[in-house]
Description:
The complex is a heterodimer of chains A (829) and B (303). Chain A is mostly beta strands and 829 residues long. Chain A is 2% helix and 53% strand. Chain A contains 2 helices and 40 strands. Chain A has a 26-stranded antiparallel barrel. A 4-stranded mixed beta sheet of chain A has the order 6-7-13-15, with no helix packed on it. In chain A, strands 10-39-38 form a 3-stranded mixed beta sheet. Chain B is an all-alpha fold. The chains are: A mainly beta (829), B mainly alpha (303). At the A-B interface, strand 5, strand 10, strand 11, strand 12 and strand 15 of A face helix 1, helix 3, helix 4, helix 7 and helix 9 of B.
Amino acid sequence: DSGVGVDLWIANKFDPSAGAAADPKDPRGTTWLRPGEKRTPTGTLYACPAEPPVLDGSGAWQQYDSSIQFGYFTIGGDDKSALWRRYAGWDDGFVLGLLELHFVRPSDGSYIDVRASHISEHDQYIKGTVGRAGSYKIEAYARSTQNVVSGNARSIWDGVGSNNLTLAGGLVPGASTPAQVAAVSAAAPERVLQVNRDKQGLGINYFFDPRWTGYFNVTDEQREGTRPFGGPFFFNFAFADNGGIFETIRPIDDSTVNTNAGIRFVGNRWRMDIGYSGSFYRDRYRSFTYEQPYALWNVVTGPGVRSSQLTQGQFSTEPDNDYHSLRATLSRSLPMNGQFSVTASGASMRQDDDLLAPINCTGTFGIDLVGNGQVGPTNPFLYACADWNTPASLSRRSADMRIDTTLVDARVVLQPTADLTWRGGLRFYREDYRNTYLAYNPLTGEYGYVAENGSQGTVVPGEVGIWNPVTGASILTRVMSLPLDTQTTEANIGADWRLSARDSLGATFSFTRNEPSHRERSQVDDSTVKLNWTNRALGWLTLRANYVYLRRSGDRYDYDPYAFTFSEHLPGFVEPEGGLPAHTVDALRKYDMASRDQNKIDLMATVMPREDMSFTASLRGDWNDYDAKLGRQKLDTLGATLQWEWQPSPRTNASLFYAYDRSKLGIANVNEDGAAAQTDPVLGGATYPEAGRWWVDDKQRNHSMGAVFVHDFRRFKVDAAWNWLWSRGLTHYRFASELALAWPDVAAYTGNAFPTMKYKLNSLTLGVTMPINEQVSLRLFDYYERGRVSDWHYLGFDEARVIDHRVYSDGGPEDYDANLVGLLLTIRL
Amino acid sequence: EGKPIGDAPPGFAYAAVAHNPAAPDAKAVGEQVCTACHALENDHFSHTLHALGLRAAAAATPGAPVCEACHGPGSAHAAQPPEKGLIIGFTHGAGTPIEVQTQTCLACHQGGARDHWLGSVHQRNGLSCSDCHNPMGRVSPEGSMARTSINETCAQCHRDIRAQFDRRSHMPLPEGQMTCADCHNPHGSLTNPLLKTNSVNETCYQCHAEKRGPFLFEHAPVRGSCLNCHTPHGSNQLSLLVAPVPFLCQQCHSHLRHPNDLQTPQSLAGGPHPDERIMGRGCITCHAQIHGSNNPSGPRLHK
């Protein structure tokens, strides 16, 4: 059912069409009665249907179109490349290319279909369908897919795949040197990080009678694997030789049950659709911990000052969550060939996971200014782990978070004449947060959190994240969660005119008011005009044109709406001497809240120069200007495509396409003057002077090209497909002065652009299929893929993954050349 | 109207001769008359789910239409075959207005996934059901598509979107493991981009349930829309990001101290100032829980 759920298609990279592309086409063509091939109403060529089976109308089950294809794959080249294997479990070995079984009983319309493929353990599927046309359909499937996220990871930890990483190779937590860590990293074997999804599903569609139908679907998916993740919250750039930055490897081990069910009624005047969707996510792990190898030292020194050593970091994993959604649509036909439809939907997302304690250390953490190890008012930056490593230190033990959503959508369509259609609609959507979290420790009477993750609070006084009414009354820290309630109201009206039998024009105006809570604006308004024109005046041409103009505006922009979540609103908070620091700069406009003008065009032409040929050309542009001195300033895209298709006979088809697009993203920002007072939020003021401004233009260019050629020589059939992508991203920057730079000392030779980011993909399939007899055919094919990738984020990672105290696991994307040769035997059953 | 006779499958039991405004006086002639000329079409049609159901209904209820359930009464067409429009045609140049084509299909297929067809972008742009579907022959394994798969069918018009899926990061659509219709309902929906659910995020949560939360500490633009940071159809950045990190983040973040520095190539590995804020996954290296943290110590999305 294309209206609900996912998994509408089950196939694999080996054959994304699940057998359809290779099905023998009917040599008689599509029709005897018209020359050439048939076209869709728009004008593109219909694909030639498969050769139909000969079925009688008896009441017996009959098998048709059944076959099994199996054989052997051999792979050469960079077969471990993440980009090559991303979603395809290519391996050397025997494969089941495709098993297709079809049975039908024409007398009552019953059918059974089975489809299966096995490329490897994580690239396989089987699907069975039993049904009776117009009566019921039962589908069941199981599928395994993989997502390779790194093909060259090196780990300095043991236990990859578990939720507890321990240092490998003799590294000592909190007492290892970069050289030792680098040696372990260099000696670690490269490994593939991937997430495997195994999913099973069952779906039932049933006609209770001609008017009432019902459906039920349930799926259960298990994800298992690993992916690159983060580490401590720290600043190696600011504190060289101190602590560490780690790209750890986290486990993925979870399951999700999704279900939906509903009933539908279709009468002469009334229609109804009531459905429920549920989703239940469960994670095997609640936390993920890792050892960190480096020592921490204080940024303050003095007689007796001692720092605590943290050797382990900890993350909470994503919480188990439940989702329930009820939705009902009621429609009624109206006079004037009209229709009224109203939909109401209510949903709830909720989770109540037990919360981890703020820290998992023992002893003390922080800075021991006195040197006696005693926590107390005279030692304000030293904390007892026992006060923070227990759930008793939390304001509540579980998350108890919930978002409820409400949707009401009503629309009416009237067609007073055959040439005129009126449309109107109202929509109301709301998200309500049902809880907030206050970070309060009843054991100590303190507010806030522990920034420690093997990290900075230990070394920087006041950065631990804890507000104390006595010893830290001026510490500005986060103490509350951020409820993001929002409400959207939309009204739209439009009309379509059929100017002639081959010419139609439409216009739509809509107004949307978004009212988010606790964002930079409490009201964001979108006014949109849409125009569309379809013309078929010329028999060989179909033209479509769409234009959209959007203006976004809103109420006053509050550049700092989040103050209420910070300690400055706690009773007893003492404003620091000199005032509160400016959280951000007043001229920044976050682009999802910023005013903007958008112009968008979409032109498409389908040309039919000959009976056996079609061209499709499109031009699409989207120009966005944001009202922002700082933040996103513009995002413009322009793209064009050309497609040519040729189908001179059922035995031959060819196609060619070219697509081009370019985009330009303009960003502006400002660095603060670290030497000045930090309290002035005004752009151009003391904190954010004009001299700190900088600008970035990110330009992307993409060229795509592809070709397909298939010809059946009768004794053998050849197929060839070529796909090519050439992408180039260039990030330019400019700055007002060296104050803008992260590293002003290199201003003189810092240039104005990053190295070009490139991605080039070339793939070629060549295949030949030879019938051996009426039942058996042999297919030999070669699939070659070459990728060239350059991402400046990972420059130098091939030489070392350990850079000072930074440890990276993933080496980044790599060039690859890989080739797959397959020999497959197909037996028609 | 009326109750079906015999064991007709309910979905086809009410099949009636379609109304063709261009041939108001035409009468039904029956399937055998049609197939006398359209033998090849009949062969292909017999390979479809529609044929199974309509013929089972006709077997249970003699006189129930088969061909004429979709094409309308055939007498006028049989009398003047070259005259366009006398039979309801679903191909280019058939002479049947698009609205008549779609209404003919909706006579049986109204409701459910097609509840919001009227006013949808595809309806406004004059698409016919048969631009995407071909119920007259077996071209795709499922869905009676006009091309071999849902994705190839959509690419007839949306080649630019299809090309984006070839980029460095993409969802597994070219690999045949998902389709455009997993996220979009091309027949019309409650959202402008034809999403199947009530919002962008609910659509994403269908496969990324772990991102649903809600989390103890939320990241406002993430809760607002996944598309604030990700482009769904393909990107040459990591993880479908709309811009390279850290500039992606710096579109919104200009806070004191470290987030608002301009990074340059001098901060890459091998440069004079290697800097974790731009190397590798940049900001996400420390703010690893960028989609939200459920840790009481995670307000900076770092635990």
